[in-house]
Amino acid sequence: MLGLSYAENKNLSAQMISSYKSAFYPGVVRFAEEILRSEKNSIASFRASVYEGESLFRMGRTEDALSVLESHQMNADSLNPESIQLNSARFFWLGRGYFAQKKFSKAQNCFFSSASIFRELTQTDKKLAENSTDYYALSMLFGAKCFIEEKNYKNAVPLYEYVISNGSKFSLEDYEDSALAL
């Protein structure tokens, strides 16, 4: 199969992002799969895999989401602010998948990796970090939930305290749940 032209890939990427922004996740999956068929080991393929993995998770297809997210990694020599942000997102959605499967230790490792990587992004490109989903905050919330599921209440407390101290970064429901957990 011949690869797609630059213009075709750019168009597919724009359609994928448009579908993502409108929460049309089946469209994201369709366009991401087309990109992944034509692109290998590029920022475009890594972006497509992260968007596809998140979309599959949101569609309730946890196994498929984990498969996509586990099989696509960004090369260390290709690190830039966008790939750092995408890698943080990748680990967050891997964590959500493992959390859904009740694999709390694996989930927690992913959430803490996501948080650590997002912290790196805030130092590398503060503007990009401010304009993207705060995976650090979300990872703290889900890391706390993992501790609760493992009945490790002592370690959940500082993470829930972070949520309470940064309430504007969370939904009202998550904020209330965190306050009740404390």
Can you walk through the features of this model?
This protein is mainly α. It contains 10 helices and no strands. Helix 2 packs antiparallel against helix 3 (43-58), helix 5 (81-100) runs antiparallel to helix 6 and helix 6 runs antiparallel to helix 8 (135-149).
Give the rounded overall mean pLDDT. 92
Radius of gyration (Å): 17 Å
Strand content: under 5%
Could you tell me how far the N terminus lies from the C terminus, measured between alpha carbons in angstroms? 56 Å
Structural class: mainly alpha
Number of strands: 0
Residue stretches low in confidence (pLDDT < 50, at least 5 long) are none
Question: What oligomeric state do the depicted chains represent?
Answer: single chain
Order of helices and strands: HHHHHHHHHH
- Please, how many helices? 10
Q: Globular, elongated, flat, extended or rod-shaped: what is the shape?
A: globular
Proportion in helices: over 70%
Query: How would you characterize the largest beta sheet?
Result: none
